[in-house]
Input
Amino acid sequence: MAVTNLKQTNTTYKGIAIPELLGNGSIAVTDALATNTTLYPIGTRYVDLTDGILYTRFAIAGTPADFKGVSFASLPVSAETITGVSIAEEVAGATRKTVLTFTDLAVGSAVAAANLAFGKKVFEFPAGVQVIKATYMSVALTGTATIIGDTPEIGLGSVLGAGAQATIGAAGATMEDYWEGGASSAISGATPLVGTKVATAGALTGIALNAVGSVKDLFLNVADGWAGAGDVTATGTITILWEQI
Output
């Protein structure tokens, strides 16, 4: 097995800090230094990005064959990096806590004084089966002067917000199946919409039991009877508590 493309312990693998995966005090090695048995004795651990395997040195001859590993290539962390969204994840056994943070994230635009729903993708669950236990949201909206007094709904869904509707639910149930839409304060960015909810269908049912073939996307959606045309941005935090099965 090759000892290549090693990830240093002060960075991340699939969005999770390597020290969290390897354990505090663990180190990473390189091809050139793998032969240095003084610096890298038995027990040295590292991550190989070519196969997602955590290797541990078990002999001291200084060759790649001295390393044996177990794969965590399927470690259930974020499947996609979303521009403008910072993703931090904590892992404790099967349980994952994913924290999404964003500032002035472009969500969409009202194009006229009319009903309209739109949204922005903020996360993608990995392949496999997940159980989404609960989602916390604290999100405030800002917008241009033409819509500054609007109080649109904000929700989280597995489908991108779309349609000529004033509420997310009217636009489509799957546009708010993770976090049922609620009315925000006026678009000023001063007061966020805050709350913790289970899936709209109920705890441990519907989209919360996310099967292999289920939609893995998570969208921040808004809808309103807009006062006029204008761009909408979002600032805040979304925290998802979930498990990989």
